[in-house]
Amino acid sequence: MIVQDVLAGKGRSVVTISPNASISELVDALAEHGIGALVVSTNGSRIDGIVSERDIARAMHKHGAAVLHMHVSEMMTSDVQTCRPGDRISDIARIMTERRFRHLPVVDGDALVGIVSIGDVVKKRIDELETESGHLMDYLTSP
Prior knowledge:
By secondary structure, the protein is α+β, with helices and mostly antiparallel strands. 45% of the residues lie in helices and 16% in strands. The protein has a single domain, classed as Roll (CBS-domain). The strands form two sheets. Strands 1-2-3 form a three-stranded mixed sheet. Strands 4-5 form a two-stranded antiparallel sheet. Helix 2 links the parallel strand 1 and strand 2.
C-alpha cells in the first residue's frame, strides 16, 4: 500500500496558511476545518513550513497569551519532512512514529499535492488488515 492509496480515499485537499498570518488566525483555521496542522505556504503549492496544535501548545507555555499576536512564521517548523505519492505506507508510518510527526505533506516534484496524518495511516492499515483477515477466513472455511 502506498501514499497514493490514502490520498485516493481522503482526497488531495490541503488547507494552507500564510506565514504572515497571526496565530489567532491559525487557531481559527484549525478549528474551522477540524484539523491538527496547517501547511504554511505563500502560494498554496510551495511548502514554507508546517505548524500544528502541538506547536501552539508549546508556544503558549513559553509566551502565554501573547502568542496569539505572533505570526505563523515565528512558530512554524521550516525544515519540513515530506513524502511522495509512491512512498509505502509502512515507511511513512515508521518515519512518523520515530520522529513523532502526526502530519506529513505529500509532494510531487516541488508541488504540494496532499497531506497524510497518522490517523489516515492507521485507518488505511486497519482496513488492509480487515481485508486480509477476511480473505484468510474465506480460505480456511472454503471446502
